[in-house]
Structures are given as C-alpha cells and as structure tokens.
Write a structure and sequence with these properties.
The complex is a heterodimer of chains A (about 110) and B (about 900).
Chain A lengths: L1 H23 L4 E2 H11 L11 H10 L3 E7 L5 E7 L1 H27 L1
Antiparallel strand pairs in A: 1-3, 2-3
Chain B lengths: L1 H14 L1 H27 L5 H12 L2 H12 L1 H20 L1 H30 L10 E8 L8 E4 L3 H10 L3 E16 L2 E10 L3 H5 L5 E2 L14 E4 L1 H8 L9 E4 L2 E8 L13 E4 L21 E6 L5 H18 L11 E6 L7 H35 L1 H9 L4 H36 L25 H26 L7 H8 L2 H41 L9 E6 L7 H16 L4 E7 L9 E7 L7 E10 L3 H4 L4 E4 L13 E5 H7 L9 E4 L3 E9 L14 E5 L9 E7 L3 H15 L5 E6 H44 L1 H9 L4 H33 L12 H27 L3 H6 L2
Helix pairs in contact in B: 1-2, 2-3, 2-4, 5-13, 6-11, 6-13, 6-14, 11-14, 11-16, 11-21, 13-14, 16-21, 16-23, 16-24, 17-20, 21-24, 23-24
Classes of the chains: A alpha+beta (about 110), B alpha+beta (about 900).
C-alpha cells in the first residue's frame, strides 16, 4: 500500500513542490490555505491526497526555500504560516522555466508521433 | 540566505525535536478540522459532523504515513535511531563487560599518555616565548670545530670584546644584547636575600621589547664602562621587598658589594631570559657589581647574545651574515698556543634554542614512544572489535535478512565504536591528569632549567593539561573510534554475509575464514612488532642507567650534607680567613658532625670554575691549558674521601705568606707533565701567581657521571681568599638531614646576614643528576610494558578466536587420534608463529629506532645483545602465556560435541 502511494507521490513530487512555491509567491498561507489554493486554481485537476502536502512542506523548509512561523488564522485558531524566501523565489523561477522547457519538448515529441 | 534558513530549520528540528513533532501533529489536526468545517458548511447541514469529518480524513489520506514521511524528510527519524543505536550499544556493552572494560582501559592508557606528553611538548616547545615579537629574536652563539678531545660546538657563549666587535660589524640585527645570569645577595631592610639576577648590557630591554611598568630601562647610551650604577627590579621583588611602593624609583638597594639606584620595575610576570631573574644589573657600571676585568678579557667567554632581526631581514639571511662574520671576529682575537682554535659564529632563532637539543630529543623520543603505545592500543581495540564482530556475524546476518539496511547497521556499529572512543577519551583525561602531574614534578633532572642559549622561560612546573592537549585528545579519540569502528563495520556487513547464517553450522568456505584470520593476524603481529621496538628502546636505556649507576665518581657522596653560603659585604682578606676558621670550627662542634670543609663548588652540581693556567716545567716547554680550578679548605678531600695518590693534601699552614701550593688531580698530572712526576712542578695561576704542586689526588667526576674526568687543580682558600662562592661540606655520622637545621643555625650565629641556601645532601645532588636518565628509562619501560601487555591481550584474543573457529576441525583431529598435547602444540605454535613474524619486523624497526637514542646511552651499544636476547625471551613467555588458555580449551574439546557443530 505504501508502495502504491509513494509511486503516485513520486510522479507528482516535483510538480507539487513547484505548485506550493507558486502559491506562496502571492502571500504567506497556512497548510490548509495552500491546499485550497492549489485545488481552486487547478480546478481539482490535480487531485492528490492532501496529506502529501506535509512531507513537501518539510522538504522545502529543509532546503531553505520557505520558512514558517506560528500565527493566528482568521477563525482565531493557532496555525503555522509558510512564507517564500528569496531563495525560494529564485527556485520557483528556475522550476517554471525548466518545466516550460520540458513541456515544449514533450509537445514537440507528441506532435511528431 | 537559503543556507541560513536551512540551517536554522535543521537546528530547530535537532534541538527541539519533540516540539517539532507535536507541532506537525497539531498542524495536520488543524488541516483536517478546517476541511471538515468546510465540508459541513458547503453542505449546509445536509451531512452530519461525523460524515464531514470522515470525508475530510479520506481526502487527507493516510495521516500516519504522511506524518512518518514528513518526519523522515525533516530528519527526526535519524535522531530517533541515533538514540536507539546508543541505547542498543549501551546494552551490548553491559552484556560484554570484559570486552568493554578492556577496550576503554586500552584507549584510556593510549590516549591519556599521549595527552600528557603532548601537554609537555606544548608547554616546552609551542608556547610563544614571553617577549615582544619572539619570532624576530635570534640566539647568536660562538662555534668551535671538533678536536681530538672534544666535539664541535655551535652553542658557546661570548666574551664581551667579541660581542662589541660583532655588534659594530653586522647590519642584520637592529639590536643586540649580551647577558648572563647570576646569583646576588640583596639586602632589603634587615633581610639578606639570595636572588637570581641577570647581568645585562643596556640593549637588553630594547632588544627583548620589554618596557618597564614603572620608571625606565637602561638606555643604550649608558652602555659604557663607568656608566651609572642602576638596577631594574622585577615586579615580584617590588611587591615583596617594597610593598609595591610607586615611589621606589630613585631608591637605593644593596646588591653584593655595590649600592645601586633603582630606575625601573619590570612588567608583572617578566623574569628575564633566564626565567628566574628578580633584578637586572648593568655590568659596565661604576662602581662595578662584578669584576670589570671580566668584560675586557676577549678570552673570557661568559655572555649569551640575543639579537633582534632588523626589519626585512630573514632569519636565514641573519644566520648567513653571522657565519660570514665569524672568521673576521676570530681574526681580531686570535688564540695562541698548541690548543688554539678558530672560533666561528652561528645564529639560530631563539625559539629553536629554547630547550637543549638533548631535551628536545628526549621529548621527541617520548612522543614517538607514546605514539607507538597509542598505535598498539588502537590496533588492540581494532582487533577486539574484529573478534567481536566475527562473533556477531549471525546477529548481523539475521538483522540484514529481516530488512535492516546496510547503512543502518554500519551506523549502529559506528555509534558503538564512537561511544567507546568517547568513554576511552574521558577516562584518558584521568590518566593524562596523573601523567601531567608526574612530568611537571620532574625537576631539575630531566629538563635542564636553562637551555644552551640561556633561555629558561619555559618550565616544567608550567606544564598543565591545556585546551590544545584536550582538543588533541578528543581528535585522537574520535579518529580512533571511526577508524577501528569502520573496518569491522564494513567487513561484517559485506553482502555475502547472509552466507554466515550457514557458516555458523560449520560449513564456512575456507577462503572466507583464512582471509579474515590473516587480517587479525597482521594486526596482532603489528602490535608485537611495536611492543618489541619499545622494549628494545627501554631495554638499552635501562642497561645504560645500570652502567651509569655503577660508575665510581671518584668521591663518596654518602652522609655528606652541603649548603651554599655567601658573603654579605666586602671583606678584607684577613677577615675572610678568620671566617673560614670560625665557621668550620663551629660546625665541627655540632653533634653528629665528623668533619667540615668548604669548597667553591661541589661535584656534579655545576658552578665550578674552568680557567687557563700556564703550565711550567714541561719537557716540551710551557703551555697554557684549560683546567678546573677549585678552592678548598684543608679537610675537603677527607670529607668526600677523595684519595691522596702522592705527596700531601692542602694544609691549614698553606696560608697567605707561605709559598703558593696546588694539588692536582691524576688527570691533570698526566696531561700537564706526561713524562714526569708532577710533585714539585710549577704552574702560573691568574697569569701572575706561581704555585708549586705538592700533591696528586684521585680524579673526581665534577661535570656529571657520564663525563670522563678532566684535569682539575685545587688551591687553598687561605692563600686565595674568596667569599662570594662557598659551599659548606659536612660529613655526618648519621643521616645528614638531621644536621641540616643545626648547621644552618650555627652559620647564622657566626655570620649574621649571610644567606644560607641550596641545602641538600650530596646523594640528593647526584641523584638529581641521574634523575633525567632514570625518569626516561622508567617512562619508556612503562610504555614498553604497556605495549607488551596490550600485545599479549591482542594475541590472546586472536588465538582464542582462531580456536573457536576451528572447533570442528579440532574435534575431527581428536576423533582421528590427536592427543591434547598435539592440539596444545598446534595452538601455541600458531602464537609463536605470530610472535616470530611480529618480533622479526619489530627487531628491524628497533635497530633503526634505537639509533635515535644513541646520545642518551652510556656504555651500551644500540644493538646490545643482552637486551635483544632479553626481549626474545620476554616475548616468547608472553606469547606462550597468551596462547596457553585457548590451547587448553582446544585440548579439552569433547570430540562428539565438536563434530556436532559446537
């Protein structure tokens, strides 16, 4: 079971990281906010298990692309807010351009075939 | 920036792992709650709270899995498993207490001894000298080439005229100072103190870059004959003698026969180049504190010279220029006579001359020896680990089989060895503590208090466990842990080890066993080889010490008490003679005293005069010859039992007015008048006093037991009165220590105001001369014994393991008719093969290593056959002992049990 899950996650891992960075590039958000934002923007096309967000958040923090700090949610509850760092912003730029490059390449291949 | 955030994150995870974990759970909880509320809200009450919550949970996925995944990524799991590994390691240690104790003790001894020796090295060699920019200071010394009688020297002191000539002709030193250390009687109030001082020229403070804390130093312009009679005192003397009175400048102080004006107080802690000076006296002053003639004689060599490099001049260049100037200075002060030599000049950095070359060699020797002990210790622990890892192959194989990763297993084994190394490192601090205590108390024998350049600012009592030594220990401990942990860890987790699940039942492939055994064998042989090197080194040193102790010094030190006395003021010649009489009579009347004499110095205690005398009545004509010159009172030869060979001794009637007489040693008689009887021959002392030889006495080894006797001549205090160097020798009926205090009191009575100091029995003095050799021999022997014990343990471990591995083979042998004796021979033989291999390598290494200590040897060749045979015998005994227990075990194996598979 764990094997299946990790396979699915592996496929999406890079993409998920990029989406999280993109979401945070607008403003700091807590975990649930990030998930809602991604689902709304992708119109539910990227349906991943919401829990997979957390390993991704730890990974991004470890790399120094995002930082976190506890704050208060609009409903008055304690929530951890994530912020994009300057390095994260640079990383996002890099990822978008390499993703674009890959899309172009894939498109080219598909059209030829 | 990203690095900083990243580090901050990791640090938080590491330092607040529990909190981080709780927060992660809290956050996920918050997420699910928010999603549930969202669903309830969206359905406008159509779904129950429970259904909404369940939906949210489903949407979130496997929370446990994601939490674990997040934990893994954050690094929390590593912290967990490290804790687990440590706990597991501790349980393992508790299960194998003998292994643990031996491993920790082995490391503690190896590392501890290293720390202690490194502390000594650090203090004696690495601490910067306490002068301004000490790396710019150079010791400048005179050199002489080797002659048939003496070796070449490059560390000799200067005469002042030569210093001045050199100062004027060189341009590589911006400042140059000449100095030598003295003992002075200083009167402060009613007290007469005997203090160490330094006679210095006026460049001294400027050259060293020392600025007095109060007042001023002597000015270079004051560096002339007849300059002001001034003195700089130490901070210590200022506080003790003048209550730290700031108005001390300009006050007068009596030093020996002169009254000097205090012009400065040295900064706190400064004790001169000699490291013990309490006052600095100008030697060119008027009135002179010392005989001014000394400084005008170009052949009276007494001064150390230190130069400060001029800006931009390298030490090499200064040394080259000094060397070039040597012949020019020599040409200005040529020596005449058959023993004349050409003097040269050598400059070395002051730092390089801070301790005697002999002491440097000793330190290097100890450092190498102790390094070898550490190597043996590490090899031993590595071997223990190998044996143990082999014993745990089944456990490791099982863990691999049920899914443990190799990385995890290696990490666990490494945690074990690092923990062990840390335990060893901590325990070693205790060993080091004791070791440093021992080394720092060795005085003055092992380390000379002054080096050949006069530098005495490094002292053994300053040796202490320092931070550097601690870091050094920690580094060794950690490196050792990693090194010996890694080998077994890699070896015992080799992938094919799943095979060992089978091998336990006794069908191991032969190659696997033999390969592993050869590794252990090599380590054991290596240990034995190192032990042999240390045994050889300590063996020849002990033999050398035995030879030294057996030397007859030419006098009998037993039951002789000695103490130094000094004049309090200038005395007339008559009053000095009266003092000798009164003092000797008063002391002789004390209970327990058999005989009393005074001499200017006593054997093997330093401070004896060496002067040139003109020897007359020679078959080949007069000749100037250097000889030891000793002032004595008549009974001195009786007190020390120096035998009278011919003629008569000095007598009380040999006084002022009577014909000048001299007694010569056998060596002097032989060298001065090789073809004639010495009695009745004449020689000229101090260039103008002609004395006649009245007697010949036995040779006395004045300059150390190792030094062969040189020519010595004895003159009477009553004919050549002198009061500034007197050593009272008292022959006692019983223990000399009992007489010490009464004698001191008696001297106070007859000579109030005389400092009496340096009270010691003659045997103590001689003992301290040998203390260096003795200490070195003891320390090296200790190291050698440690190495031998460790190597024996290593051999025992290896052989035991081999026997355990070959249980089945042993059973087969017994079944086929081998007797217990055969098996014993088989096992012990294996030990002897190891010993032979290690011993052979060790002897080769030893023959090279022992050459290093040739200078420390007396009367023993580095390849001393007695030592070598002794080592072989000792080694054989140790190895047989180490193999005996496993051999008996092998012989006692019941055949059936062995064949069943152990």
């Amino acid at each position: 079971m764990a094997g299946l899950d990790s396979k699915k996650n592996e496929l999406l891992k890079g993409t998920l990281d990029m989406l999280v960075l993109q979401t945070l590039s607008v403003r700091p958000l807590h975990g649930y906010g990030i998930a809602q934002q991604i689902e709304a923007l992708s119109e539910d096309a990227l349906r991943v298990e919401q829990g997979s967000l957390y390993p991704a958040l730890e990974r991004l923090q470890k790399k120094g692309w995002i930082t976190s700090r506890w704050g208060e949610s609009p409903t008055g509850r304690r929530a951890r807010y994530y912020t994009l760092t300057a390095a994260g912003r640079r990383q996002l730029g890099n990822e978008i351009s390499s993703f674009d490059a890959m899309l172009v390449a894939i498109n080219r291949v598909l059209r030829r075939a | 920036m990203s690095l900083l955030d990243s580090v901050r994150y990791r640090l938080r995870v590491f330092t607040r792992s529990r909190q981080h974990e709780q927060e992660l759970a809290e956050e996920m909880e918050f997420f699910v709650n928010a999603e549930a509320r969202q669903r309830e809200h969206a359905a406008r009450g159509d779904v129950s709270a429970k259904a909404a919550r369940d939906g949210a949970r489903r949407r979130f996925g496997n929370a446990t899995y994601y939490r674990e995944e997040a934990r893994r990524i954050s690094g929390l799991d590593v912290i967990d498993t490290l804790g687990q590994d440590a706990a597991f390691a501790l349980r393992t240690f508790a299960r194998t207490p003998v292994f643990t104790a031996v491993a920790v003790a082995t490391l503690a001894i190896g590392i501890g001894a290293n720390t202690a020796i490194f502390s000594a090295v650090d203090t004696l060699l690495l601490t910067p000298l306490p002068f301004k920019a000490p790396d710019r200071l150079m010791n400048v010394a005179l050199t002489v080439p080797a002659t048939s009688a003496s070796r070449a020297r490059d560390d000799l002191v200067w005469s002042y005229p030569k210093v001045e000539a050199f100062r004027e002709s060189q341009n590589v030193f911006s400042d140059l100072t000449a100095w030598f250390s003295t003992q002075n009687t200083v009167r402060v109030g009613d007290d007469a103190l005997r203090l160490s001082g330094e006679f210095v020229d006026s460049h001294y403070f400027a050259t060293l870059g020392i600025v007095p804390a109060l007042g001023r130093a002597m000015l270079p312009t004051e560096n002339r004959v007849g300059g002001p009679a001034v003195v700089v005192i130490s901070d210590e003397l200022w506080r003790a003698g003048f209550n730290a009175d700031p108005s001390v400048i300009g006050k007068r102080i009596d030093v020996d026969i002169a009254t000097l004006t205090i012009i400065g107080v040295a900064p706190p802690g400064f004790a001169g180049v000699s490291g013990k000076a309490k006052l600095w006296l100008p030697f060119l002053s008027d009135p002179p504190v010392w005989d001014n003639a000394l400084f005008r004689d170009p052949y009276n060599h007494s001064f150390f010279v230190i130069g400060r490099l001029a800006p931009g001049v390298t030490p090499d260049r200064a040394a080259a220029i000094s060397r070039e100037l040597g012949p020019r200075i020599d040409a200005r002060f040529p020596e005449t006579g058959p023993h004349s030599r050409h003097w040269g000049i050598a400059a070395r950095t002051l730092d390089a001359t801070r301790i005697r070359d002999d002491d440097r060699r000793t330190l290097f020797l100890l450092f190498s020896a102790v390094g070898m002990v550490l190597l043996v210790a590490c090899a031993n622990v590595a071997n223990l680990f190998l044996v143990r890892a082999a014993g745990r192959r089944r456990e490791i194989a099982v863990r691999l089989a049920i899914g443990a990763s190799r990385a995890r297993l290696i990490r666990q084994l490494l945690v074990e060895s690092v923990l062990l190394a840390i335990a060893g490192g901590v325990a070693s601090l205790a060993v080091a503590w004791v070791g440093v205590g021992i080394i720092s108390e060795v005085r003055p024998g092992l380390w000379s208090s002054q080096s050949d350049s006069g530098v005495g600012t490094v002292f053994t009592d300053q040796i202490h466990l320092n931070i550097a030594a601690f870091a050094f220990t920690a580094a060794i401990a950690l490196a050792t842990g990693l090194v010996f942990g890694l080998v077994p860890a890699m070896q015992s987790t080799r992938p094919e080890l799943t095979e060992s699940l089978k091998t336990e039942t006794g069908v191991a492939s032969r190659s696997a066993i033999s390969r592993r055994l050869s590794m252990r064998d090599a380590i054991t042989a290596f240990e034995i080889a190192l032990a042999v090197v240390l045994l050889a080194g300590s063996g020849v040193l002990v033999r050398s010490l035995v030879q030294l102790v057996a030397i007859r010094p030419g006098f009998d030190p037993q039951r002789v008490l000695t103490m130094r006395v000094n004049r309090a003021a200038a005395w007339s010649r008559d009053s000095i003679s009266r003092f000798y009489d009164v003092a000797v009579d008063r002391l002789r009347s004390l209970p327990g005293v058999k005989e009393v004499a005074i001499a200017d110095c006593s054997p093997q205690s330093g401070g004896c005069s060496v002067e040139n005398v003109d020897v007359l009545d020679r078959a080949t004509g007069p000749q100037r010859i250097g000889t030891g010159l000793h002032w004595i009172t008549p009974s001195w030869t009786d007190v020390l039992h120096v035998p009278l060979v011919r003629g008569r001794s000095i007598e009380r009637s040999d006084a002022i007015g009577a014909p000048l007489v001299v007694v010569v040693s056998q060596s002097a008689a032989r060298e001065f008048w090789p073809s004639d009887d010495a009695i009745g021959k004449r020689l000229i002392l101090h260039a103008h006093d002609t004395a006649r030889v009245v007697g010949v006495v036995g040779d006395v080894r004045f300059y150390g037991v190792q030094q062969p006797p040189r020519p010595d001549i004895y003159i009477s205090y009553y004919q050549f009165p002198m009061s500034f160097r007197m050593m009272v020798h008292i022959l006692t009926a019983g223990d000399p220590a009992v007489v010490a205090e009464p004698a001191r009191r008696a001297l106070r009575e007859v000579a109030p105001g005389f400092p009496v100091y340096d009270v010691a029995s003659m045997e103590t003095r001689i003992g301290s001369v040998l203390a260096g050799s003795r200490f070195l021999a003891q320390l090296l022997s200790l190291f050698a014994v440690l190495a031998l014990v460790l190597a024996t343990i290593g051999t025992y471990g290896t052989i035991s393991y081999a026997v355990a591995q070959r249980t089945r083979e042993m059973g087969v042998r017994i079944a086929l008719g081998a007797t217990p004796r055969d098996l014993t021979r088989l096992v012990v033989g294996r030990g002897l093969v190891l010993a032979a291999a290690g011993g052979a390598v060790g002897l080769v290494g030893a023959s090279a290593a022992v050459r290093l200590i040739r200078a420390q040897l007396y009367g023993v060749e580095p390849t001393d056959p007695v030592t070598l045979v002794g080592i072989v015998v000792l080694l054989a005994i140790a190895v047989v002992a180490a193999s005996w227990v496993p051999a008996r075990r092998a012989a006692g194996i019941p055949a059936v049990e062995a064949l069943r598979g152990g």
